Amino acid sequence: MPTERAIAIANRVEEFVRTQIIPYETDPRRDHHGAPLDEMVYEMREKARAAGVLTPHILPDGTHLTQRETATVLIKSGLSPLGPLACNTMAPDEGNMYLIGHVANDELKERFLKPLVEGRARSAFFMTEPAALQGAGSDPSMMITTCRRDGNHWVINGKKCFITGAEGAQVGIIMAKSEEPDSAGGACMFLVDLPDPAIRIDHVPNTIDTSMPGSHADVTIENLRVPASQLLGNAGDGFKYAQVRLSPARLSHCMRWLGGCIRAQEIATDYANRRRAFGKELIEHEGVGFMLAENWIDIQQATLMIDWCASVLDTGSLGTVESSMAKVAVSEALMRIADKCVQVMGGTGVTDRTIVEQIFREVRAFRIYDGPTEVHKWSLAKKIKRKWKQDNGLV
Q1: 252-287: per-residue pLDDT in tens?
Q2: SS3 185
Q3: Which residues form the Acyl-CoA oxidase/dehydrogenase middle domain (predicted)?
Q4: Rg of the chain (C-alpha set)
Q5: What domains are there in the chain, each with its CATH number?
Q6: Are 29 and 37 a contacting pair, CB within 8 Å?
Q7: What pLDDT was estimated at residue 183?
Q8: Exposed e or buried b for every residue in 256-284, given b needs 16+ CB within 10 A?
Q9: Do strands 216-227 and 199-203 pair parallel, antiparallel, or not at all (unpaired)?
Q10: What pLDDT shows up at residue 117?
Q11: Contact yes or no for 206/33 (Cβ under 8 A)
Q12: Largest interatomic CA distance in the chain
């Protein structure tokens, strides 16, 4: 059961999103990709600040809600695609705040974490690399961006792609493979101020999703000099830190987009109860009513899966297996929900007259980012094989 603290925060977030943020869904302040402009983002955040719901998952003393409490809150923030932006619970900032808070020293927290928590800056996480270069994607061990020591600095060179929010971000976390022998070929992470002339945005492609400011940029990093003091954690431990970030971040995506699909179900349900065809309301036709019933089941199952994975993370476990399971189960369930909502609403469902069409597009992208469904299933299958070998005394 959610705690009283989480319920109280979630209720405030829900009221704020429904009354003050949903009207922004028709605001024309968008870039040519359809993503909200920073002007609108920071305007919404000021309203969230005034309402006491800015960065609601991080308490005034700097401590975090538990993952189970966070789920209660983030689901409500996701009732609009703009809700997480307004409340400062959106990717990549939410995951970056989590990582910096768990790994950075006090000096770096003051410089890089504080403006993110206060909602006065956006951030970007530079990990994914171009497939054409055989760079890191779902397999981070393929990383080709490099870093090497040069006196009191590190020098970084490489290319990154699909870097969410890079355009317009003020804080960056860059992941690069170390060329230093004492790092044993491991990765390093660095905190950097953005923009920086050594980090060039080459292209920002149009993508199916349009909820994230700055979209998903292709980037070249050329002789970027980063002071050694801005190394995040220890040299060579970057892959470990990536898991610190990615496991809860996958789950946070599930939370936010579950909220979106709950909203889509509300809209489709309202439509099916008001629209008549063949002498009765649409919901009275089994073909329509059954789709909404199946959605209701999927919503409840997704909620339980999120709660189960969150409870594992709350034990202090990295929860990589559990977060993979949740990512697969929830993203696939949300795709079914969003698809059925579009289908129930017919022609209206594929227009921008409601937010259902956008939620469908966003959830389709979610099945890919933070690890495609197939990669997570492959990883789980490897673990099944390993356990079978152990159970049968073969290792």
Answers
A1: 999 999 999 999 999 999 999 999 999 999 999 999
A2: coil
A3: 124-205
A4: 21
A5: 4-90 (no CATH), 124-236 (2.40.110.10), 239-391 (1.20.140.10)
A6: yes
A7: 66
A8: bbbbbbbbbbebbbebbeeeeeeeeebbe
A9: antiparallel
A10: 97
A11: yes
A12: 79
What CA–CA distances, in Å, run from 130 to 134, 136, 183, 233? 7, 7, 24, 26
Q: How far from chain centre, in Å, is Cα 213?
A: 13
Return the amino acid letter for 30: R
* Residue 173 near residue 190 (C-beta atoms within 8 A): yes
Is the pLDDT score of 223 beyond 70? yes
Q: Which helix (H) or strand (E) holds 309?
A: helix 286-313
pTM score above 0.85: yes
Q: Are strands 216-227 and 276-277 parallel, antiparallel or unpaired?
A: unpaired
Long-range contacts of 112-118 (CB under 8 A, 24+ apart): 112/171, 112/191, 115/170, 115/171, 116/88, 116/171, 117/55, 117/58, 117/62, 117/88, 118/54, 118/55
The DSSP H or E segment spanning 99 is helix 93-103
pLDDT digits (tens, 9 = 90+) for 50-73: 999 999 999 998 899 999 999 999
Q: Where are the beta strands (DSSP E) in 230-309?
A: 276-277, 280-281
In the three-class reduction of DSSP (H, G, I as helix; E, B as strand; rest coil), residue 79 is classed as coil
CA-to-CA distance for 314 and 285, rounded, in angstroms? Answer: 44
Are 274 and 313 in contact by the 8 Å Cβ rule? The answer is no
DSSP state of 188: E
CB of 275 closer than 8 Å to CB of 103:
no
Non-local (6+) Cβ contacts of 382 within 8 A are: none
Task: Identify which of 112, 138, 117, 116 has the alpha carbon closest to the alpha carbon of residue 127.
Answer: 138
Phi, psi torsion values for 252, nearest 5 degrees: -60, -40
Of the chain, the end-to-end C-alpha distance in Å amounts to 41
Q: Which amino acid appears at position 322 of this protein?
A: E
